[in-house]
Amino acid sequence: MSKRKDAKALARWEHDTRQWAIDTGRDLALDLYYNRDRAARPYGVGVVLDPSEKVWAEVPVRFNLDWTQPAKPGEQAVPAVRPWLVTSGRLVGRLADDRLHGYRWEHAVGVRVDLTAGREIVGLDIQGQPTLMWSGPGIAPMVVAAIFHLYGIAAMIEHPGLAPLRAARDWPQGPDQLERP
Which of 161, 149, 181 is nearest to 32 (CA)? Predict the structure, then answer.
């Protein structure tokens, strides 16, 4: 593919992923607020769930402690996008070393979030770990889960980090609108 086609394909993927993540995050926030069970979904991360653990979403994100792809000269190295499972008990993903890496919610002591289109991140402070950062347009369900576990059910309605889930969409409505003249 040419650089232009690559850029268009990436913009389309980011738009579609962002739309899916916002819709999924909004649905998750409402399900948690109203104490509704989420429908079981198949997932590909390959983790065995604990007996009472529920799958909330599988999200495509970058993780700061993952190995990066070698960068071309003049480009910045960026971790690969990998699927992470967001559950009622933890976050789990399979990294470049082909091993599962997981972080339990009960060990989280702080969170920073941003759902601004193009800057989507969640930074989780876990006891005894460096700050864990996930990023990418698929992050919204992970942000909802982190805020729920750290701040409780009322945060699904009140937390400012979830405002983009409550607000009208402020990003372009289709991949064709993502091009710049």
Answer: 149
Q: What gap in Å lies between CA 177 and CA 163, rounded to an integer?
A: 24
Q: Which two tokens stand for residue 106?
A: 């009960």
In 3-state terms, what secondary structure has residue 47? coil
- CA 20/CA 128 separation, integer angstroms: 33
Measured CA distances, 49 to 1, 29, 45, 107, 130 (Å) = 40, 21, 11, 18, 25
Residues in the chain: 181
Domain 3-70+77-172 has CATH 2.60.40.1930: no
* Average pLDDT for 106-133: 95
CA distances from 21 to 113, 117, 130, 139 (A): 14, 11, 26, 6
C-alpha span between 41 and 38 (Å, rounded)? 9
Mean pLDDT for 126-130 is 88
Beta strands 121-126 and 90-94 are unpaired
- CA nearest neighbour of 27 among 105, 144, 109, 117: 144
Contact 44, 163 (CB under 8 A): no
Provide the 8-state DSSP code for 171: S
In angstroms, how far is CA 48 from the centroid of its own chain?
Answer: 20
In 3D space, the residue among 160, 138, 163 whose CA is nearest the CA of residue 151 turns out to be: 160
* Confidence band of 72 (pLDDT split at 50, 70, 90): confident
